[in-house]
Request: fold
Amino acid sequence: MAIYYKNNMFYLHTKNSTYQMKVERDFLLHVYYGPYVGETDMSYLIKNIDRGFAGNPDGITEKGFSLETQPLEYPAYGTGDFKNDCLKVVYADGSHVTDLKYVSYDIKEGKYALEGLPAMYQGEEDVQTLEIVLKDEYKNLEVVLYYGVFENLDIITRACKIINKGKEKVNVLRAYSMCLDFTYKDMDFIHFYGRHAMERTMERTPLLHGMQSVGSRRGFSSHQHNPFVILCKQDATEESGWCYGASFVYSGNFAAEAEVTQVDGTRFTMGIHDAQFNFELQQGEAFVTPEVLLSFSPVGLGQLSRNYHKAIRYNLCRGKYKTARRPILINNWEATYFDFNTEKLLDIAKEAKNLGIEMLVMDDGWFGKRDDDVSGLGDWFVNEQKLGGKLKDLVDGVNEIGLKFGIWFEPEMISEDSDLYRAHPDWALQIPGRAPTRGRQQLVLDFSREDVRSCIFNQMCEILESANIEYVKWDANRHLTDVWSAMVSSERQGEIFHRYILGLYDFLEKITQRFPDILFEGCSGGGGRFDAGMMYYHPQIWCSDDTDAIERLEIQYGTSFAYPISTVGSHVSVCPNHQTGRTVSMKTRGVVAMSGTFGYELDVTKMSEEDKQMVREQIEDFKKYYDLIQNGDYYRLTDDGRKSPFVAWQFVSQDKKEALVNVVVLRARANAMLHIVHIKGLDPEKLYSIEETGEKLSGRALMSGGYPIPIMENDYQAWQIHLVVCE
Ligand code: DGJ
Reply:
């Protein structure tokens, strides 16, 4: 049994972890999350020590029992725990105190769902759900804590529901999704920061007293911080040490916080950021928090990542393309930007077909009046004058050449220079009378409004039904400011950030259900909304607007900590690269892009014969290695190049019979030293043949001694070896 209750203790077990809680004097305490300990009651770890200025709950005279120092499962504001709280509300009388006491529990087979929100689902795994009810008796405010235990995946999901059962209204000012109270502090905080065109750079720092936090108040999960955080023991490496991950299944504002306490414990919390958050609950109404995916690995960061890769790939991503091979695409953005027509696109398609590419994606600029980025958003009708014909003719033409056809949309945005804006200026998020902030010269549509969403939905459906469109790139190129909606009263404006995301999810659910055969790729100026929430709707997301293969090493390395290869949108682009001006070989560009969904984004009609031949070979390689890359286990063999002179990563098939090692050497050196790459995840007892050299070496040798990388004669050279078990 993955979940059971015994002697006031809750036990949650996965293959390699145990999670325990205890009901103590009516409070729900967090007892333990760590390596599997079976039935051992770990509550001996909690000591009631009298600490100065630590108050006691009503009715408790034992000075050592204070909410300030007890590890709490879901801390609420105002009853003597002065640390970071998960729940803060203001009642109709203006008071802010919530005293949560344990009421009951229920254990159910299967996985709970969260209405209107993305969440992990059961799939082929056995899953159990635990629901625990807590309550503030005085105000009749109930909190239901949800736990989904995916035993084999080593994942425990968490979410909660706050229900106002009182007569008067309640305003929820903060409702986080989870808290973990650790009894120790000697951990590192690993997070993934960045900026547009350089997302998810890994940073690791020791926890210090006080708060370490990352988050977003931009309305989107953002390029700047990713809603995935790891706490790990300070000696944890890729292969050893305890690591705790928390992935937020949400695409809007978030906070991930680690607070080291006065008694050297750590409180780790995650949830919707409370900036401009104020959710009103009338009698009987409830607020549901988004889900957090927790995972624990006792054997380092590599295993932690592999836990998330499987969970996200198989129990969060959905639809036909969750596992089906995605077409190798060519996108015209970096080839033409806004300057294209049917003739140009057909030329690209013809050449692409010759190279083995399978789909043409027409990016920004095909609709409304849109020859640059200042106009047209919101007018989702085809600009036939610009295209020089009908969309259907273009799509049919592309299909006749033998390619599938995909198209770009930016459904959440509106240009002031658009018919839609001229008709409905109040549909944009802006405050009447106040000049709005613009981003990329555009405003954001109020997606909290059903009428706004349905207008865009209908426009999109019309386009998608007008021709044989098999792919949609869903872009969103600015963050949210002027968050105010004409649809709700002044008291409820604090709900709009979240209602926007609920509206977005509602739209995505409807459009993906209506077009189940279309492959949807998410995008927000690259990876500005690269989060587990979006992956529920989009099985792949454009990873970054930075297509430089060397920059991508860093971005894809950071991305790999939480997200599977199948979600990482990655293309080969032209050199000199448009973002950095750097030139690297076609081989290197291919090796890097192949560790993703794989596609091209350059003008193939202008390529040299030599590069074209390389592309043909690359496509053959991609097809050959597809199963290994997409379904194999992923191993990071080095860092992202900040310390290591080369960046290496590897895929190993589930049966360990095959592996693909990828290396990019960053700098060629005179009289160069020999670099050795230590291969991982092989079967030590098996003999592997190296396809490229014909050598035969044991898994043990390759993992213990490693394998020498050939000396490279130029910067940024890539090298791959394919290992196959000798039967
Ligand atoms: C940002 C995206 O990330 C790019 O790939 C491209 O689609 C542009 N938007 C188009 O405006």
